[in-house]
Amino acid sequence: MSKLPFAIRNPALLDEFEPYLVATPFNLPLLDPEPFGMPTPPQNVLNPLALSSEPFLTLLHRLDGLTFGPEGMPMPRWVFFDCSEMPGAIYGLARRASTLWPGVRDLFKLPADFDGLVPVSMYVAIPMQRPGQWFGHNLSSLAPVFNKLGAVPLDLRGLGSLTKGLALQAFGVREFWGATQWTSKALHIHAKFGPLALQTAYTPAHSEHETLTYGFHVTEAALRASMGDPSVVLARPPVDFWLDSADVAGMIALQDRIEAGGRFVIPGAPRLGATGRAEVPIAELAAAAAATPHAGV
C-alpha cells in the first residue's frame, strides 16, 4: 500500500528505501521535507556545509559516476558542490548499508564496517530567478545498474520517476526547465510529467550539441501522473512527426523553426524506431496556443 495519499506505480519502493534531503541551512527553510505528507527522517536531512555530511556526499558523487560515467558526463566534485549542493537541493531515496546486497556494497566501494545511509537515487535542481522556477540538474537512479547486476531481488520500476516527482514537490517547483540529450533514456521519465515545451532542439552552448531544452508547469496532476497514479490522465496533443535521436540535421531544422517563432512540444515517450534507435514524438502547437506565454510548459 502506498505511503502517499494516492496510488503510485510501485509502492514497494517506499517500503524498501527511505527519503533523504541535502540542503544548506539557508535553503532548507524554503523546502518541504514532507512531500505529499511523507516525512524525511530528521537524521536524513543533511547539511552539505558540515564535515559530518562528507561520507554521504561522497556516496552521492559515486552515484553520479555510476549513472553518468558510462555516458562520459560524470560531474567533477567541485561542480557537484558549486552547482548542486550550494545553490540548490538534492532529494532521493536510500537504504542502510547493513541491509544492502553484497554486489551493491562493492559498487560503492564501501568499507566492511560502514553502516551509514547509501543513496540509490537522487534528483538535483537549482532555483532560477523567478520564484518557483527551477532548473533540473541531475536525475540519477541505480535501477538500470541493479538490473544488470541481477543480484537485487526487488522490482525497481519507477524509481527514477518517483524520485523526481517527490523532489519537485519537496522543492516547491512550479515552473520546471531541464536539458537532456535526444538519446537519453531519461526522456521516458520526463515525458511522464506531460507535454514538454521545447526551447532548443540543438544546443551548441552545451558541450553535447545534440541536447534539447524543455519545460513544463508543475501541477499536482503532473506529479501524480509521473509517479504512476492511474486516476490521473494528462492531456497530450497528437504527434505530428517523429525525430530520430541520431538525426542531427533534423534537430537543426527543428531548432531553426523554434527560433523563427514556432512552438513545439514532446507530447509523450520515445519509441524504438525501425533503425533500432529511439525516435522522439514532436507536436506543433497551433498559432493561438503558441502565442500564449510559456505555451506548452
Can you describe this structure in just a few lines?
The protein has 297 residues and is an alpha+beta fold. The protein is built from 10 helices and 13 strands.
User: By helix and strand content, what is the structural category?
Assistant: alpha+beta
Number of spatially distinct domains: 2
Task: Give the CA-CA distance, first to last residue.
Answer: 32 Å
User: Helical percent range?
Assistant: 25-40%
Uncertain runs with pLDDT below 50, 5 residues or more? none
Please tally the helical runs, counting DSSP H or I stretches of 4 or more residues. 10
Task: Give the overall form.
Answer: globular
Oligomer: single chain
Order of helices and strands: HEEHHEHEEEHHEHEEHEHEEEH
Instruction: Compute the average pLDDT.
Output: 91
Rg, Cα atoms, Å: 19 Å
How is the main sheet built? 13 strands, mixed
As a percent range, the share of strand residues is 15-25%
The total beta strand count reads 13
